[in-house]
Design a protein that fits this description.
Elements: H1 2-12, H2 20-33, H3 37-49, H4 55-69, H5 74-83, H6 89-101, H7 110-120, H8 129-139, H9 143-155, H10 162-174, H11 178-186, H12 193-205, H13 209-218, H14 225-237, H15 241-253, H16 262-275, H17 278-291, H18 297-309, H19 313-322, H20 328-340, H21 344-356, H22 363-376, H23 379-388, H24 398-410, H25 414-422, H26 430-443, H27 446-459, H28 464-476, H29 480-492, E1 502-507, E2 510-515, H30 528-552
Helix pairs in contact: 2-4, 3-4, 4-5, 4-6, 5-6, 6-7, 6-8, 8-9, 8-10, 9-10, 10-11, 10-12, 11-12, 12-13, 12-14, 13-14, 14-15, 14-16, 15-16, 16-17, 16-18, 18-19, 18-20, 19-20, 20-21, 20-22, 21-22, 22-23, 22-24, 23-24, 24-25, 24-26, 26-27, 27-28, 28-29
């Protein structure tokens, strides 16, 4: 590269100035062949030093260098821009793009400042300028500035430009103004797959999962991997993992010919973890191995979490050990798996190994380790870890206090639990009081249980669970009149028990849900009387088998 530049410089000095255009084109081609910042900086130094290069050609080449350098080094690009006497729109677009995609600080507003300079210098923005300025507004969630740029888009005639309109949808989505995002989308004369993806993501972010599903179904464009991943991840995070798996099955048989990537697989594993769908989770694991997909920390952690929540602790630990690199999320997932199934000592041992590995715990790690102590009755250890949080610069949150209340409550140390709640720097929530209420129910502490249950009813008067627990406490203490009074409260306040409990079973990768009312997934549902008859027949057959076994003994 350097040799070619020197040759060009030597040959240039032997030719007339009329060949300046050829030199400009040659250097321009050379710029686009550069593969590193070092090579670009070499070209830049020769552009500065080349004699007799016309000013407009030097300015053009400097702008091209600015465009190529800006993604690699923002500071270098800014220095180049500062040396341009009369920046063109191309130069402004390059430096605005660099600042919006590589902000030096979250509160930086360099792109907006440059945009104002552009306007002050008499230049008009184009369809490249506005999307990058809107990108900075989105990053900073600056709704006021974004609306101003939106007005400029209308003023300069870009209300039909699909790139500008897509950027506006993303702006209003990032700023939490889903209504305006939908308004922009509805008024777009032309839409592409990015438009549909943007409005679907906006709906998912605002919790409008049904609206997102309607848009997804109505989408005329071929869905790409971003579309499918957004829907799967959005429904998992929105608490509807079963539908997320249905979307994944649709993706596998769709005409779009889209193959799952790491984001897809992580989302599906998360859904499997929520539903206990171990067979599908295993299929995903085999798919990763069969296709040679790199099992990075995200996928590895997702597998650990899935196996742990499905109850396969050994397999979770096997995957965990096989991970070449482990971050705090991976360690926390394995600790949580131990805690969830009552392996408190194993969780504590693993926490010690994490600290030995030099991995700093986070707030979620301490929730996991405190839960492990609660489920195993390790009171002193729980206190020690609670106090250790401060050494790691972590301020205990309400969930950490809830775990400590649970630890003390399970051990029957109600006075200490009440004292801890009284010392909380944050207001205890329903989960904190709920942990104490559960302990009162377990240990039969009627006096404190009554007090806590009444407090919870005041906090959430529509939640039937607290009424039921209070009735149970009164029933155990034979205070039947009080129990009847609570039931009257429920009737007067029209508090009804929630949906009936459900069970989930996985059949050939499909998760079916059953309750006392039946299964909504079954096209020809078995009547309840017929189901009872089948169960009675099975019960009788089991009794016959039992008698037959007794005759053989």
């Amino acid at each position: 590269m350097f040799y070619a530049l020197e040759q060009m410089k030597d040959s240039y000095s032997n030719f007339d100035f009329e060949l300046d255009g050829d030199v400009k084109n040659s250097i321009g081609r050379l710029i686009h062949r550069c593969k590193s910042l070092k090579e670009l900086s070499q070209v830049h130094s020769h552009v500065i030093k080349l004699p007799h290069l016309l000013p407009n050609h030097r300015s053009f080449l400097t702008s091209r260098l600015l465009f190529c350098i800006s993604p690699l080094s923002l500071s270098y690009a800014c220095k180049i821009f500062s040396l341009i006497q009369n920046p063109t729109l191309f130069s402004y677009n390059a430096i605005i793009r660099a600042n919006s995609t590589n902000p030096t600080h979250p509160s930086s507003s360099a792109s907006l400042i440059l945009y104002k300079q552009l306007l002050a210098n008499g230049l008009l923005p184009d369809s490249i300028t506005l999307p990058f300025v809107l990108k900075e507004c989105s990053t900073r969630a600056d709704l006021i500035a974004g609306r101003g740029v939106h007005a400029h888009g209308l003023k300069f005639g870009y209300e039909s430009d699909v790139y500008v309109q897509n950027s506006l949808i993303n702006l209003y989505s990032e700023c939490g103004v889903s209504e305006d995002a939908h308004k922009v989308f509805d008024e777009m004369p032309n839409r592409d797959v990015v438009s549909w993806n943007s409005i679907i993501i906006s709906s998912l972010r605002s919790g409008e999962l049904d609206a997102a599903l309607q848009l997804f179904s109505a989408m005329p464009e071929r869905k790409n991997i971003i579309t499918w991943n957004s829907m799967i991840t959005g429904f998992v995070q929105g608490g509807r993992p079963k539908e997320a798996l249905e979307i994944f099955r649709d993706m596998q048989v769709s005409v779009d010919t889209v193959y799952p990537d790491k984001v897809t697989l992580a989302g599906v594993l998360s859904a499997c973890a929520s539903l206990g769908a171990i067979n599908l989770g295993r299929w995903v694991h085999h798919y990763i191995e069969r296709t040679g997909t790199t099992c990075d920390m995200v996928l590895g952690t997702s597998l650990v979490d899935m196996y742990g929540k499905c109850g396969f602790i050994r397999k979770a630990f096997e995957v965990f050990l096989g991970m070449p690199e482990k971050d705090v999320l991976a360690w926390t997932a394995m600790i949580s798996s131990y805690a969830m199934h009552g392996y408190g000592r194993d969780a504590i041992e693993l926490y010690g190994r994490m600290e030995e590995a030099g991995v700093r715990p986070n707030a979620v790690t301490f929730v996991a380790i405190l839960s492990a102590c609660a489920h195993t009755g390790l009171i002193d250890e729980g206190r020690r870890y609670f106090q250790r949080m401060g050494k790691h610069g972590i301020e205990p949150r309400v969930e950490h206090y809830t775990c400590m209340v649970d630890i003390l409550g399970r051990a029957g140390r109600f006075d200490e639990a009440e004292e801890l709640i009284g010392r909380m720097p944050v207001s205890p929530d329903v989960f904190t009081w709920g942990a104490l209420l559960g302990a009162c129910r377990t240990h039969g502490n009627i006096r404190l249980g009554e007090k806590v249950a009444r407090l919870l009813i005041e906090m959430e008067p529509e939640n039937h669970v607290f009424y039921v627990v209070l009735c149970d406490l009164y029933g155990k203490s034979r205070r039947f009149e009080d129990r009847q009074r609570v039931r009257s409260w429920m009737n007067d306040r029209r508090v009804e028990k929630g949906a009936p409990g459900t069970s989930l079973i996985e059949v050939e990768g499909v998760v079916l849900e059953f309750s006392v009312k039946g299964s909504p997934e079954m096209e020809m549902e078995m009547p309840m009387e017929r189901l009872k008859s089948v169960l009675e027949t099975l019960d009788n057959e089991m009794k016959v088998d039992e008698k037959y076994i007794e005759t053989l003994l």
